[in-house]
């Protein structure tokens, strides 16, 4: 903060300043990365295609020790669901936990009653069948629980899984698409384990966002990834409760980003690093046939901590391309000329977080909007006396377009569909947003403790 010498705010009891975040241990690369299994679709007489169960289990994260964890259709994290644009999906969701949960489909454009927000809690033992048509373009989405006040803890304990959507365009593009071979899902999460190697959420909890010293990628401790000398597509998800990641290669080599949260960029964008705040995704391609190094090669975080060492085999193989034209995303003049009709002010820290001065109230509708009508929302991150912090802002049930950041065009790699955006202190972001379906949808900070602490509101689409 400013005013050095007056108060050392990091000393305020219980407050861990986010500029002095706990650092992450380096991955030793001891374990080959786990790849989430693909959930098989199997249509029964009722037309149920998938069953997704939230369950408790024990997982050997550390050699020879069982940790108590949560998972979907397994003890930790979840399987990968693969949908095709245009298909109708029927999912039986089952709560086998000892507590309430919901099944939220983050980034999916579905009706409010399918979205799985805090109003849709299933009690222990309950199940619910949901049905929706997949009506959006190829992208990498995810799913996680959303019960009132308990989202952070349930995600922390292991409830999170991935969704891939494919369409004609993604099939046409000849991108690397061999799942687990050259098309790799990567869920980055930081955790703290106690002496018994347990995820003791209440002990680890920080009201301003729980940050851990231990990195798990797809639930793998000390992961490494073995790749061939070819183009490899990494689908990055920041699945942490609160930690931001800035991904780069330790060699300084560049890579290309091909997709944002909700679809392909128009063309690949060359980057040396990319920052993802909680819940943001990006697809990147690293060409391992082009990187010559005698040293170890790894994906690292900004402070040089090793996230994912690569072992490059001598096999060169695939013929995948990085296409030049991938999408036809655009900001129309009409969208750019629309007046701001909704303003959102994010403010506060710890358990004092608010949106437009209010905390979440499940009985209050904060905004209404017409189905299928584009509006412009302006989101402002109001700094506090200590400067404030980044809030990753997310809206349910839709993908939106960033019109501007502080009046300027968004960076090239944000000119694509987004459902979550990082907003810096004192930054003002305008987005063009419409909803395809009706219902009540949440918008909130995706620092999960902020969400649980009430940094959330509701928009009703009629
Ligand atoms: Cu990942 Cu309310 O969402
Ligand atoms: Cu969501
Ligand atoms: Cu926040």
TrEMBL record:
<keyword id="KW-0132">Cell division</keyword>
<keyword id="KW-0946">Virion</keyword>
<feature type="domain" description="Plastocyanin-like">
    <location>
        <begin position="196"/>
        <end position="290"/>
    </location>
</feature>
<dbReference type="GO" id="GO:0051301">
    <property type="term" value="P:cell division"/>
</dbReference>
<dbReference type="Pfam" id="PF07732">
    <property type="entry name" value="Cu-oxidase_3"/>
</dbReference>
<comment type="similarity">
    <text>Belongs to the multicopper oxidase family.</text>
</comment>
<dbReference type="InterPro" id="IPR011706">
    <property type="entry name" value="Cu-oxidase_C"/>
</dbReference>
<keyword id="KW-0560">Oxidoreductase</keyword>
<dbReference type="GO" id="GO:0016491">
    <property type="term" value="F:oxidoreductase activity"/>
</dbReference>
<dbReference type="InterPro" id="IPR011707">
    <property type="entry name" value="Cu-oxidase-like_N"/>
</dbReference>
<dbReference type="InterPro" id="IPR002355">
    <property type="entry name" value="Cu_oxidase_Cu_BS"/>
</dbReference>
<keyword id="KW-0167">Capsid protein</keyword>
<feature type="domain" description="Plastocyanin-like">
    <location>
        <begin position="56"/>
        <end position="169"/>
    </location>
</feature>
<dbReference type="GO" id="GO:0005507">
    <property type="term" value="F:copper ion binding"/>
</dbReference>
<protein>
    <submittedName>
        <fullName>Multicopper oxidase with three cupredoxin domains (Includes cell division protein FtsP and spore coat protein CotA)</fullName>
    </submittedName>
</protein>
<dbReference type="InterPro" id="IPR008972">
    <property type="entry name" value="Cupredoxin"/>
</dbReference>
<dbReference type="InterPro" id="IPR045087">
    <property type="entry name" value="Cu-oxidase_fam"/>
</dbReference>
<keyword id="KW-0479">Metal-binding</keyword>
<dbReference type="Pfam" id="PF07731">
    <property type="entry name" value="Cu-oxidase_2"/>
</dbReference>
<feature type="domain" description="Plastocyanin-like">
    <location>
        <begin position="338"/>
        <end position="461"/>
    </location>
</feature>
<keyword id="KW-0131">Cell cycle</keyword>
<dbReference type="InterPro" id="IPR001117">
    <property type="entry name" value="Cu-oxidase_2nd"/>
</dbReference>
<dbReference type="Pfam" id="PF00394">
    <property type="entry name" value="Cu-oxidase"/>
</dbReference>
């Amino acid at each position: 903060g400013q005013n050095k010498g007056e108060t050392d705010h990091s000393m305020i009891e219980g407050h861990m300043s986010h500029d002095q975040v706990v650092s992450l241990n380096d991955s030793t690369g001891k374990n080959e990365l786990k790849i989430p299994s693909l959930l098989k679709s199997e249509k029964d007489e009722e037309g149920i295609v998938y069953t997704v169960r939230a369950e408790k289990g024990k997982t050997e994260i550390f050699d020879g020790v069982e940790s108590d964890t949560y998972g979907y259709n397994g003890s930790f994290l979840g399987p990968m669901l693969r949908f095709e644009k245009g298909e109708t999906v029927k999912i039986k969701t089952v709560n086998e936990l000892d507590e309430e949960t919901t099944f939220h489909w983050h980034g999916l454009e579905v009706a409010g009653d399918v979205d799985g927000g805090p109003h849709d809690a299933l009690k222990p033992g309950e199940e619910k069948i949901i049905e929706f048509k997949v009506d959006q373009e190829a992208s990498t989405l995810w799913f996680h629980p959303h019960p009132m006040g308990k989202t952070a803890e349930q995600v922390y304990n292991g409830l999170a899984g991935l969704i891939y959507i494919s369409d004609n365009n993604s099939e046409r593009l000849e991108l690397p698409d061999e799942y687990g071979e050259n098309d790799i899902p990567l869920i980055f999460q930081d955790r703290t384990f106690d002496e018994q190697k347990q995820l003791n959420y209440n002990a680890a909890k920080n009201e301003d966002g729980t940050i851990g010293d231990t990195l798990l990628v797809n639930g793998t401790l000390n992961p490494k990834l073995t790749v061939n000398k070819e183009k490899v597509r990494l689908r990055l998800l920041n699945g942490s409760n609160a930690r931001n990641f800035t991904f780069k290669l330790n060699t300084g080599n560049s890579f290309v980003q091909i997709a944002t949260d909700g679809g392909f960029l128009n063309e690949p964008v060359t980057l040396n690093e990319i920052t993802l705040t909680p819940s943001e995704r990006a697809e990147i391609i690293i060409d391992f046939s082009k990187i010559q190094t005698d040293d170890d090669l790894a994906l690292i975080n900004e402070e040089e901590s090793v996230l994912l060492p690569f072992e490059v085999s001598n096999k060169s193989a695939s013929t995948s391309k990085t296409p030049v034209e991938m999408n036809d995303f655009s900001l129309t003049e009409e969208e750019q000329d629309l007046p701001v009709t909704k303003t959102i002010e994010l403010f506060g820290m710890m358990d004092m977080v608010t949106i437009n001065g209010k905390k979440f109230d499940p009985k209050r509708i904060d905004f209404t909007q017409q189905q299928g009508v584009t509006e412009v929302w302006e989101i402002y991150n109001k700094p506090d006396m200590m400067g404030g912090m980044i809030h990753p802002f997310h809206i349910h049930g839709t993908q939106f377009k960033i019109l501007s950041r502080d009046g300027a065009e968004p960076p090239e790699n944000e000119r694509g569909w987004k459902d979550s955006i990082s907003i810096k202190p004192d930054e003002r972001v305008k987005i063009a947003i419409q909803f395809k379906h009706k219902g009540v949808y949440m918008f909130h900070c995706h620092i999960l403790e902020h969400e649980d602490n009430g940094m959330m509101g509701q928009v009703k689409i009629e």
